[in-house]
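Model: You mentioned two targets. I'll fold them one after the other.
Researcher: Yes, keep them separate.
Model: Target one:
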Amino acid sequence: MSLQQQYEKVLRHPRRMTEIYATAGCLSFLSWCRNCYISTVAGVAMMTEGASTFAQSAGLGALMVATMNLVWGTGCHVTNLVRLRNVSGMSSVTLFFHVAGSSLHCVLWAFVLLCYIGFLDETGGLPRDDKTKQQVDVDSEKRKRGLIDGSRTV
């Protein structure tokens, strides 16, 4: 069977075409997510391991690329789901769960990333610029001498 005959056979069965489009849409979404995770790992590594301001900026840039990947990929996936809903015979309930799952994925990724960055900032895992570092050193010296009690200055 030639390639043209195979193509015509697929076109005669719209249900099969819908399955192909749906599979391509899901694989595309997974690809966007994978690229998001790779950029996230690179960004977090640059932010935590980089000592210079340039490394911090590069890490932030990688996190922005990760955000773009996830938002764009989720937007395309949701759009394709809505477009193919009638063609594929997807019920409104199924569509709702697919859209909610994709959206929840975005929200959970952002939540985990923000919690991790907040944890690093709280524990001092993120390098600070020299001015902030000097202020921290001054505050720690004052604490040692008993001049600062908790969060209040005496």
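Model: Target two:
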Amino acid sequence: MPVGRKRWNLHDGPQGSLRRLRNQLAEDGCAESQVVLAKQLLEEKCELEADKISNFKQGSGMADLCH
């Protein structure tokens, strides 16, 4: 039976490892990890909303220039 080469999985560095560990702890019921993840999700949502507003303002500003 031939032995295959070991495949290495590339990750996004120590921050990615910590994020995956935090996710696993939260899934396992760790309240502190759940709070940290909730805060991160809220921050990401706020950033996404801010980007949408900025894009909307830039888009409507361009429409004003064309008319």
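Researcher: Noted. Anything on target two?
Model: Residues 62-67 have pLDDT under 50 and may be disordered.
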